[in-house]
Design a protein that fits this description.
The chain is an alpha+beta fold. The chain has a seven-stranded antiparallel sheet. The chain has four helices and seven strands; from the N terminus they run βααββββββαα. The radius of gyration is 17 Å and the shape is globular.
Length: 161
């Protein structure tokens, strides 16, 4: 199952890539939602090979997830592959510079089942695909607007200094 969204953001591509590769910020967001997450590769900057393990509650059960950055092509693309039980996922963020101060962000998620229970889960998601797609698009838009607001605030503080 594939879902995707795209959003035009009023930020230069370099600033966008810096934001979408800020894995520490994503770790903090996951922790605030009640999951446990830990980086399992040697600490270094973001890049290909960065790995995490996470534990979280979903549908009343404790789940384990392993994620690994499989593609890190600054400033245009990041791909993270994940595995949780019988479900494989690939999350991709692609950036395209439209103008020097505007970037198109294309976000995609592909889920692939590897066993029967995961196949049934993905089938149930397909039945609700329009609702899931709307929620995914709303989340991507909210993330993009938040980046614009934080960038505008940072520029405002720099101008006052």
């Amino acid at each position: 199952m594939k879902i995707s969204s795209r959003e035009d953001v009023s930020l230069p591509i370099a600033a966008m890539f810096l934001a979408v590769s800020d894995f520490g910020a994503f770790e903090r967001r996951v922790l605030r939602r009640g999951a446990e997450v830990s980086r399992t590769d040697p600490p270094s900057g973001p890049g290909k090979g960065s790995t995490w393990e996470a534990q979280f509650q979903f549908r009343g059960r404790e789940r384990d997830l392993t994620a690994r950055v499989t593609e890190y092509d600054a400033p245009s693309q990041i791909t993270v592959a994940s595995r949780s039980g019988g479900l494989r996922g690939e999350f991709t963020v692609s950036l395209v510079a439209l103008t020097p101060k505007k970037t198109r962000m294309i976000v995609g998620l592909e889920l692939s089942p590897t066993n029967l229970s995961a196949r049934l889960f993905v089938q149930s998601l397909k039945l609700a695909k329009s609702t899931i797609s709307r929620r995914f698009e709303a989340a991507v838009e909210d993330y993009a607007r938040g980046l614009e607001r934080s960038h505008d605030g940072a520029e405002g503080h720099a101008a006052l200094s």
